[in-house]
């Protein structure tokens, strides 16, 4: 028994799954089709309710008309009944054959006159007369008939009958006409709904095509500049916000890529130069060890650069704990970036501690030192000092300085005062230094009043 129940449940579940799958396949796949189907179903239910209500009212109205006609005939027959004497008498008139058609006349419960071959209808008329009052019933005698009783004075009652076939025919005609009208209305509703929905969704298709054609970075066009209905305006605003976020992300990605390339260039150049020098001619074991040491330091510097920039790009703030001895940390990039023997590089000042990790301090100062060593004529000076809010670093060179017209663009990414000056660079070092300093709670500024040469000031929190 349990096995039979299990199979029955399994078969029932399969049938339900098949029915669900069939409904899913039959459902429209487009929003236009689904909205049209919803409108069609809604209109069908509304038309069904209206058709039932209309035909019910029409049927009641036709029946009321039949009852009125029966009462009118009964009143006409009542004029031929004499109830003034001790007995009820039926008077003869010139149109008896019309008045006597389907008419029963009673005195109390006694039948005085009945139509010929009434048969079953006479029993229905007897029941109406015996119940008294004005009553109507529907009977079936080879067709629908309506019978109504009409009491008159002297205890007499007239019962009249009427064939309802013409009225039923009218009701059927009304029903068929209403169904035909419903079909036409539903077809028009479906067609008009599809046209209206298609027209309403046309701007959405246009916006979809435009979103695919526009470049999130290069194009400045947005949906908010176009005239749309309120709903589509809100959709356009959401799409504009998404495009702006994509543009921001792509800009950050390009910025990170450029900064990594800019910062990795120096240690990579050291590795290439050291390998070229080592392969130029045979070297002693001590020279080979020295080359290995330089390459290892450059590789470690590259890893530190990647870790620092990626940490900043990940959340925009550099909150890793750590402190750095200013003088010892600054001497290392000064020795690497400036060519020994060609420039006089001095790093001096009191022994102060900055409240940032050594790797971050080196990344902030390295672009400033690289520019100073690149453009200086003979000297580069790095001075550490205390500031009211922490510690500071001044980097000064005796080069040509920054052109006054370019001072306002100095920290904008990708800007260079003279791209054809013979020095390589992408214009990313100074913006990177300022961004990293600000992420650590500091600042990088340019002293426009310093002459001759260039002076940059770095302020950082104290350790």
Task: Please describe what this structure looks like.
The protein is of the alpha+beta class and 463 residues long. The chain has three domains: 24-213, no CATH class; 216-316, Helix Hairpins (Orthogonal Bundle); 321-417 and 425-463, Histidine kinase-like ATPase, C-terminal domain (Heat Shock Protein 90, 2-Layer Sandwich), CATH 3.30.565. 56% of the residues lie in helices and 15% in strands. It contains ten helices and 14 strands. The protein has helices at 2-26, 31-78, 96-99, 120-131, 165-213, 230-280, 285-315, 326-337, 358-375, 429-439; strands at 81-82, 89-90, 103-107, 110-113, 136-140, 144-151, 156-163, 324-325, 344-348, 353-354, 379-387, 390-397, 443-446, 454-460. Strands 4-3-7-6-5 form a five-stranded antiparallel beta sheet, with helices on both faces. A five-stranded mixed beta sheet has the order 9-11-12-14-13, covered by helices on one side. Helix 2 (31-78) packs antiparallel against helix 5, helix 6 (230-280) runs antiparallel to helix 7 and helix 9 runs antiparallel to helix 10 (429-439). The longest helix has 51 residues, at 230-280.
Q: What's the β-strand tally?
A: 14
Write down the secondary-structure element order: HHEEHEEHEEEHHHEHEEHEEHEE
Tell me the strand percentage band. Answer: 15-25%
**Coarse structural class:** alpha+beta
User: Which stretches of 5+ consecutive residues score pLDDT under 50?
Assistant: none
Gross morphology is: rod-shaped
Terminal CA distance reads 83 Å
Q: Which strand order spans the largest sheet, edge to edge or round the barrel?
A: 4-3-7-6-5
